[in-house]
Amino acid sequence: MTSPEADVLLSVTMLRPDEKLLLTALRAAQVPVRTVLLGDMAQVLAGHTAPPGLALIRNLSHREAIGVARRLQLAGVPTLNRADTIEICNDKGLQALLFARHAIPHPVSLHAYGYEQVREAVTELGFPAVLKPVSGSWGRGVTRLSDEGSVEAWIGGRESADAAGKLFPVLVQEHIDKPGHDLRVVVVGRTPVVAIQRVSDDWRTNTHLGATVNRVEISDRMAHLCAQVVDALGEGFYGIDLVEDRTTGRLLVLEVNANPEFARSSAQHGVNIADHLAAYVAEKYSSPTVPLAA
C-alpha cells in the first residue's frame, strides 16, 4: 500500500450479490473502499482521484479484467489478482502449460490449431476425449468426443461457423472418469477456506448446469494441490477445480478460476468467503510488504 490513507478500489462491471457481500465485509473490517465501474477508470488512471492502495479486480469480462489490472499495475497500484495471473486463469491452454512446467497433476492436454490437429490429438489420447475452447466459463463449448462420428460432427459444425479457423487453438484433453462429482476449493491468499463437492448426473459438473453443492472437508491431498497452484501463480483469490479419477484414484487439478463467484454457494455451505477475503485485504492494507500474486 502507498500510505495509510490510501483506499481499496473495488473494480466491477456491475454490483452482483458477491460484490455486495464483499463491500459489507470490507466495511466491517474497517477497510476504506470505493467501487468503480469501467467508465470511472479514466479518472483513476489520470490521477484525478486519490491513488488507491490496492485494487480488487471483480470485472466480469476476462478481457476487461486483464486490461483494468494491467493499467492499474503500470500506474503503480497493486491488484488482486494480478493481470498476468488473470490472463493465465482465462486460458485453459496456458494453465495446462503452467501445470506441466510445475509438475502439478492435470489431465493430459494437447493444443490443436486446426481441424486435422483435432483429429490427431483425439487419436493420440483415445476415446472418449474432451474438447474445450481455451477461454470460457460455465461449461460452455465443452464437448465429449466419444467416437470418430462425434469428432466429425464437431468439426462439421465448427467449420460452418468458423471456416477460416480463427477460433483456434482449442484444447483436446484426456477424459477423466469422475465419480459423479468434482471439487471446488476456494483459496484466499494461500489458504484453502472451503471445499465443495459439485454433484451432477451430467458428465459436466458446473453449478450453472444444475449441479448441487455439498461442503466437504479439505483433505491433505486437496491442500497439497492448492499449495502447488499458489506456488505457481502466486497468492490470490482463486476457485481451484479438482477432479478425481475413480478408476485410478488420482486427484488432479482441472483448472483455476481467478474471479470465483461465492454468494450463492456461501449460502449453501455456510462459510463466509467475503469475510475471509476482507480479512486478507485488511492484512494487505496494513502490511504492504506482503507479496501479491506474481
Number of strands: 13
Approximate strand percentage: 15-25%
Shape: globular
Low-confidence stretches: none
> What percent of residues adopt helix (DSSP H or I)?
25-40%
**H and E string:** EHEHEHEHHEHEEHEEEEHEEHH
End-to-end separation: 16 Å
- The secondary structure category is alpha+beta
- For the CA atoms, what is the radius of gyration? 20 Å
Biggest pleated sheet: 5 strands, antiparallel
Q: What is the average per-residue confidence, as pLDDT, rounded to a whole number?
A: 91
Strand order of the largest sheet: 11-10-9-12-13
Count of discrete alpha- or pi-helical segments spanning 4 or more residues: 10
Fold blueprint:
Layout: E1 8-12, H1 17-28, E2 33-36, H2 41-45, E3 54-58, H3 62-74, E4 79-80, H4 83-89, H5 92-101, E5 109-112, H6 115-125, E6 129-133, E7 143-145, H7 148-161, E8 170-174, E9 181-189, E10 191-199, E11 212-216, H8 220-233, E12 236-244, E13 251-257, H9 263-269, H10 273-286
Parallel strand pairs: 1-2, 1-3, 3-4
Antiparallel strand pairs: 5-8, 6-7, 6-8, 9-10, 9-12, 10-11, 12-13
Helix pairs in contact: 1-10, 3-4
Give a brief outline of the structure.
The protein is of the alpha+beta class and 294 residues long.
Structure, described:
This protein has helices at 17-28, 41-45, 62-74, 83-89, 92-101, 115-125, 148-161, 220-233, 263-269, 273-286; strands spanning 8-12, 33-36, 54-58, 79-80, 109-112, 129-133, 143-145, 170-174, 181-189, 191-199, 212-216, 236-244, 251-257. By secondary structure, it is α+β, with helices and mostly antiparallel strands. Strand 12 and strand 13 form a beta hairpin. The radius of gyration is 20 Å and the shape is globular. The mean pLDDT is 91.
